[in-house]
Amino acid sequence: MIKVQTILLALMMTASAQAQTLAPLSMGEGPGVRLPLYLDDSKPLEQRVEDALKRMTLDEKIAVIHAQSKFSSPGVKRLGFPDLWTDDGPHGVRPDVLWDQWEQAGQTNDSCVAFPALTCLAATWNPDMAYLYGTSLGEEALYRNKSVMLGPGVNIYRTPLGGRNFEYMGEDPYLASRMVAPYVQGLQSKGVAACVKHYALNNDEEYRHQVNVIVSDRALHEIYLPAFRAAVQEGGAWAIMGAYNLYKNQHNCHNAILLNKILKQDWGFDGVVISDWGGCHSTEEAIANGLDLEFGTWTDGLTMGATNAYDSYYLAEAYKRLIKEGKYTTRELDDKVRRVLRLFFRTTMNKKKPYGFLCSDEHYEAARRIAQEGIVLLKNESPTKGGTDKLLPLRKDVRVLVVGENAIKMMTVGGGSSSLKAQHEILPLDGILSKLNAQSSKLLYARGYVGDTIQSYNGVTVGRSLYETRTQAELTAEAVEKARQADVVIFFGGLNKSDFQDCEGHDRKQFELPYGQNELIEALVAVNPRLVYVNISGNAVAMPWADKVPAIVQAWFLGSETGTAIASVLFGDVNPSGKLPFTWHADLSQCGAHALNAYPGTWRTDHQVIDEEYKEDIFVGYRWTDLPAKVKKEKLRSALPLRSAKNPLFPFGHGKSYTTFKLGKLTADRKQLTADEKITFHIDVTNTGSRTGAETVQLYISDKKASVERPVKELKAFRKIFLQPGETKQVSFTIDRSALSFYDEQTSSWKAEPGEFEALAGTSAADIASRLAFNYQ
Ligand code: BGC
Question: Is this model's pTM higher than 0.90 or not?
């Protein structure tokens, strides 16, 4: 009530001053007080938007479409709209930076729970986990008064060198679509907007500002857009972030095709297009091509904190001038402002928002559950040749040697804009220590290699000290000596969030593990074959020693509960159930983009733009791996000779368990399908082992004959199912013709061609248990 009265008073006080420009107040009904219509939340959203719009001056309209600080844009004080605060995103709520600088503001109330990176979320293959992620993050954001979270990211994993793959959801458009929608819904259920990023084709981090992507319409629609579309149409995203790069020679933050045509016209997006920070380059393109809210523009003086720097944004004074000169009416401006007003009503002005919580027990539990479900057991064999005793899970009474910097390195800091100030982060070494039986076991540690000795990242201090002065030879000698004394060696390696690893701003320079880890692993396994390799990364890495190491675990960047989650899997308190959201190539030549020499592209002579042609087209990830050798050879004629014909190290969708599962025979409720019908497939899954566990059944569809080249198979449904030992459950999948369709470039629409199809059910892209033919008429 106080709020309403204050606003009314403010309205009356400014009414005379603004009289010429303001529409008369039209009051809505309300108990005891007459509210202006736009404040009456019993009225339809669009009426409130129109009413507010009518009351705004030109200056107010211009003000709400560009930033006023690094992460905020102004509301309309006169009308009672508060400032809009955004923040990164996507793994937790980023600590506050200074008003006009990237430096930490030094607050003491902006620590957060760090949730697992989005690759881990995708690896759960569990949409319920995505919803839980969204709601938990939303509550943290509310507490911190952030109304727009800059995430989630759904750019496709095109190459394992992608520096920001860890912030995304893998290589498959269907999996990413299923996971992004509930994340958005969960977050927005708290009255906090998702800002889905980076729309679109931001698959190259190294040259993200210069890349002009050349891609077929088919690959655009079949591979790179579906997750964004799902975020918008299924998730109902209220905001989307334009990407830095160019498509068809136009920057994506004001790209007519991507924003006006596809996003707004075809998909019916009614939310706000926000520029990536510094992604806007032209006032006129921004006016005409669909950008609604400009952030982070690197104008002169801005980095110096000049007081009026924000006036020189492309959508600020320059835009106002063009309107005043008569070059533009307010038609485009009003559309942008309507969208921003919608965002206000959905977030800052939403009176039904719940209260926020920061670092609650529930949020830690959510982070832990997601981490535990996302960890992928890549390999688990016996340390003795021909043995049947699998190395994992470990006993708690053994002498354990932990080797590796990643066992003691905080990973919630670093990596660029997703860096966090976690209230706590349990390191792998501490997680393991807490599991060991204090009386009968012993924990040894050896650093093994040095990757990063940084002690603080943008003002956030890392946990344990990473200071180290010993040489590599000394570090190796120590680790090898201790390995001889241990019952089991757990090596924590992989990448970290330093530049050129998993980090914003650059891509990786190599597929190989950095910092001499390969040599160290070889030396260790030679003296102690009971070696578990735990890989921390958001990308696949080369593992030339994979045959020699009996157990390999992919543990991503897991956030606050890293150590707890990993230890619970290693010691068997949790049965791993994660599945790879991307193909784990043995070497780069197995990846279409690299085999075809289509990364990173060709610089133009002026060295301003690099053209990156996605020559592999729709054949990304397993779609490339699946291609018959003959077809691949044909495609490779004009490119590099095929250096390797091996299978990937681990296929898409792969992940083991401590129990075993058996899939039955695939059946269907019909043999034929017409355009308006659905077909339902059934398959039994049995837990044939002795532990409770979860299997993810994957349904791929194969078009047997088509007028265009089609992937051998494509994921079109999946279900994660939890089973007790000996238990059998039936899993059902219902699909319609959309699962059979390709994007037809002739008609610019989706098309299913009549003919034979096959459904394939399996536990990874390479482990197909049962197939069933059906017909589409
Ligand atoms: C990143 C975005 C991020 C923004 C704000 C940009 O450099 O690309 O993902 O949300 O900065 O930190």
Answer: yes
C-beta 276 within 6 A of ligand 1: yes
DSSP 585-605: -SSGGGSHHHHTT-SS-EE-T
Q: Compute, in angstroms, the gap from residue 476 CA to the centroid of ligand 1.
A: 39
Task: Give the number of the atom of ligand 1 that is nearest the alpha carbon of residue 71.
Answer: 5
Q: For residues 715 and 730, what is the distance between their CA atoms, to the nearest angstrom?
A: 19
Is the distance from the beta carbon of residue 366 to the nearest atom of ligand 1 less than 6 Å?
Answer: no
DSSP E strands, 89-204: 148-150, 193-199
Report which of 766, 633, 752, 769 is spatially closest to residue 712, judged by C-alpha positions: 766
Q: Which two tokens stand for residue 528?
A: 């102690």
d(CA 159, CA 172) in angstroms, rounded, equals 12
Closest to 522 measured CA to CA, from 476, 481, 559, 464: 476
Atom of ligand 1 lying closest to residue 208 CA: 8
Tell me, yes or no, if 684 is annotated catalytic: no
Q: Which residue in the list 110, 276, 507, 617 is annotated as catalytic?
A: 276
Structure tokens at 473: 């030879």
Q: What is the pLDDT of residue 643?
A: 57
Does 23 score more than 50 pLDDT?
A: no
Cα–ligand 1 centroid distance for 501 (angstroms): 18
- Residue 14, classified by CB atoms within 10 Å of its CB into exposed (0-12), middle (13-18) or buried (19+), is middle
Taking the C-alpha atoms of residue 548 and residue 379, their distance in angstroms, rounded to an integer, is: 11
Average pLDDT over residues 276-294: 97
Helix, strand, coil share (%) of the chain residues, nearest 5: 30, 20, 50
Going by C-alpha positions, the residue among 138, 70, 75, 80 that lies closest to residue 340 is: 75
pLDDT tens across 497-533, in order?
A: 999 999 999 999 999 999 999 999 999 999 999 999 9
Strands 667-668 and 672-673, bridge-based pairing: unpaired
Ligand 1 neighbour 197 (Cβ under 6 A): yes
Q: Is the CB of 559 under 6 A from ligand 1?
A: no
pLDDT score recorded for residue 460:
83
For residues 504 and 498, give the distance between their C-alpha atoms in angstroms, rounded to a whole number.
9
Determine contact, residues 412/559, Cβ cutoff 8 Å. Answer: yes
